[in-house]
Amino acid sequence: MSMVTHEERLRSAGLRVTAQRVAVLDALARQPHAPAEALHAGLRERVPGIALPTVHGIVNDLTAAGIVRRVSLPDVGRALYEIEADDNHHHVQCVSCGRVEDVPCAVGAAPCLHPSHDHGMRVIEASVTYRAICQQCERNGNV
């Protein structure tokens, strides 16, 4: 799989390439499954003057363009974001510390899970979240 630059992703989605958008994508590449607030905190030194509402606007634009995926997980009161990998992967989430990791598709090709009855709808995505205890939390007795 060839490495596509952030600038190429933006252009191919019809978005203008800006320093702020590239910085948000860089931050997401370093810290997947991050909320906008964490992205903002990590960007303040790199992009002086960037405001939290600007980061929210950027992740919303990138999500609408299909560059970023919004991830909603149980017990997380805010959206998390990751760069769209077009692989319909799932997530495993530690119920103690909240750590989130990617998990390959459960079975077969996307959407990889088929409901017993689709009620006449064409399934386009299946979202699975495995809830677990990570090894670090288990060792620390945070069960």
Which key terms come to mind for this protein?
2 domains; 143 residues; globular; 5 helices; three-stranded mixed sheet; single chain; alpha+beta; Dna Ligase, domain 1; two-stranded antiparallel ribbon
How does this structure look, described?
- The chain is an alpha+beta fold and about 140 residues long.
- The chain has 2 domains: about 70 residues, Orthogonal Bundle (Arc Repressor Mutant, subunit A); about 55 residues, Dna Ligase, domain 1.
- Helix content is about 30%, strand content about 15%.
- Strands 4-3-5 form a 3-stranded mixed beta sheet, with no helix packed on it.
- Strand 1 and strand 2 form a beta hairpin.
- Helix 3 packs across helix 4.
- The longest helix has 13 residues.
- The chain is globular.
- The N and C termini lie far apart (about 40 Å).
* Annotated CATH homologous superfamily of the largest domain: Winged helix-like DNA-binding domain superfamily/Winged helix DNA-binding domain
**The CATH topology of the largest domain, please?**
Arc Repressor Mutant, subunit A
What is the overall shape? globular
- Output the helix-strand order: HHHHEEEEEH
Count of alpha/pi helices: 5
Number of strands: 5
CATH architecture of the largest domain: Orthogonal Bundle
* Overall pLDDT: 87
Q: What strand line-up does the widest sheet have?
A: 4-3-5
Class derived from helix and strand content: alpha+beta
- Low-pLDDT segments, ≥5 res: none
Number of domains: 2
Query: Which range best describes the helical content: under 10%, 10-25%, 25-40%, 40-55%, 55-70% or over 70%?
Result: 25-40%
The amount of beta strand, in percent, is: 5-15%
